[in-house]
Amino acid sequence: MGLIDRVLVVVSFQSAECKVELLRVLAPRTVEALVGAIPFSSKAFLWKEEVYFETPVTIGPEKPRSTVQAGDVAYWPPGKAFCIFYGKSQPYSPVNVIGRVVTDLEPLKKVRQGEWVKVSLL
Which parts of the sequence belong to the Cyclophilin TM1367-like domain (predicted)? Predict the structure, then answer.
């Protein structure tokens, strides 16, 4: 990935899609590892007002945070998971915040557990 500060990706579920801006400054090692693994597919899981899915990346805590805002995107080290917070929700345990959703959050409420998801570079 080099020294690119921002990377746009598209996260496509069966019932919704969103665009995400990954910001290297937030967690450089985590963002580099995820970008290096794109494209990848997984299955969606739900937790409160969050959708998350396993990634092919294994990385430990990097500037971990216990609180997030709607629209935040994070990596959850214990589950090797990409997490998208679309409403009033907090992570199960600390996460590496890696970016923000840059499109409307409302469609993410349609995502159902078990849906296929694909992450691609924009």
Answer: 10-119
What are 41's two structure tokens?
């597919």
**Closest C-alpha among 80, 104, 92 to residue 18:** 104
Both structure tokens of 40: 């990848």
pTM (predicted TM-score) = 0.95
Q: What's the number of domains the chain is made of?
A: 1
Decide if 47 is inside a domain: yes
**pLDDT tens digits for range 15-70:** 999 999 999 999 999 999 999 999 999 999 999 999 999 999 999 999 999 999 99
CATH code (residue 105): 2.40.100.20
- Omega of the bond leading into 91 within 30 degrees of 0 (cis): no
Residue 58: strand, helix, or coil:
coil
- What is the enclosing helix (H) or strand (E) of 96? strand 96-101
For the chain, how far is it from start to end, CA to CA, in angstroms? 14
